[in-house]
Amino acid sequence: MTILIVYVDDILITGDDTNEIQNLSKNLSQEFDIKSLGRLRYFLGIEVAHSKEGILISQHKYTVDLLQETGRLACKPTVTPVDINVKLGAGGDSPPFNKESFQRLIGKLIYLNHTRPDVAYAVSSLSQFMNDPREIHLQAAYRIVEYLKILILEIYTNADYTGSVSDRRSTSGYCSFISGNLVSWRSKKQKAAPVRREGET
């Protein structure tokens, strides 16, 4: 299978048939003025990092650009994307806000759901007000942007000390999260058993 993804003047070719990918690239270059950028690293605001364990996608630059665009680059980050003390409704007496600007901001936040599912609920709740946005809705959207500034790294690890009854070797494991999203994990039996101290059985 070979997949060709086209967005305006950005093209991505991928698949599991190397020969077909090369043939497609050759045919495209004969018809259009194209330039190969090599291994995929950035496409439509999504950064791609390759490792032996697989592929990690992120939208770090996209997030920084959004913080800068909204004037929140130097803001104090919030710890949650939603203020539980604020109940959002039609807006009431809250002043109206430019509909096109609000829709554009919500659209950018929706696109972030690819790598930040932790804001999906908050963004979905705000998207219902895109036809008649008010100042209170804008502030709620800014809170989500301010929350995006937080990058929390959590790593958990454990081992069953000499857990194997046959060779006394331990099995250890770890998992790591970035902003609540699982990004890597592993479990492996240790190569050597721990040194037995005097008096241990």
UniProtKB/TrEMBL annotation:
Domain Reverse transcriptase Ty1/copia-type: 3-82
Domain of life: Eukaryota
InterPro entries linked: DNA/RNA_pol_sf (IPR043502), RVT_2 (IPR013103)
PANTHER family: CYSTEINE-RICH RLK (RECEPTOR-LIKE PROTEIN KINASE) 8 (PTHR11439:SF470), GAG-POL-RELATED RETROTRANSPOSON (PTHR11439)
Name of the protein described by the UniProt record: Reverse transcriptase Ty1/copia-type domain-containing protein
Lineage: Eukaryota, Viridiplantae, Streptophyta, Embryophyta, Tracheophyta
